[in-house]
Specification:
binds fe (ii) ion; about 250 residues; globular; 14 helices; Hypothetical protein af1432; mainly alpha
Length: about 250
Amino acid sequence: MDDSKSLSERADELEEYQMQRLEDLIVTRSVLYQLGDGEQPQFKRRPPQPGQRLLMGEDTRLPKMPEKPTLTDFVKLRFSIGGQQHLLQSARLARNQGLPEKIVFACLVHDIAVNGFIRSDHGYWGAQLLEPYVDEEVSWAIRAHQALRFFPDEAVGYEYPKLYIRMFGEDYQPEPYIVAEYERAKKHKWYMTSRMICVNDLYSFDPDVVVAWEDFEDVIGRNFRQPSEGLGNDNTSSSHMWRTLRRPCNAL
Ligand SMILES: [Fe+2]
Ligand SMILES: [Fe+2]
């Protein structure tokens, strides 16, 4: 032991060593992202050293979650500030327009997957994540916004987003399954609920406006069936997805 160092210096060194060791033990990149690099994932994963174990449990690098986490705990502790403001500002816009509370709530959680789970096909994942806890109309609308956002509806002032031209190029054409989904959604009784998500989907969020989750606590309370045992500790068709959100780097 190096006696020339103070107790706090030694404590700092120990913490750094433990953090470094922990880094080694965590599978930091998912197989899906590794596939994006065009390589066989198993060749890129560093094997654990003798005596090391892979992470199975709470990830100490992430904010600690309560034992019985609520929807608000998940958004506050697992979403980026920008992602949270996108949802909050969309909901604020819907509320300012006097839209029904169900639509305000749908706007509040419409991109829950892109912010906390996975970007690809985010409307479908988001709907599935929420389905056991929300009104069927809300999850239907979130699923359909995946397709509707690519198609204008001049009757309600929805244009093809200029951001998509920048992001995907002038010549981008939605894939056939998206076109088919749009055709089905157009004829659906809840079409306008989903369309209102698109209308209030704020692509240029206003940095001068800061909206808090507390402003929507009552809306969440009336529109989200919070399980008493905590999201992920319950037994629904999407409990495992909440658990993955909570502990995204578990080895298995
Ligand atoms: Fe979206
Ligand atoms: Fe959005």
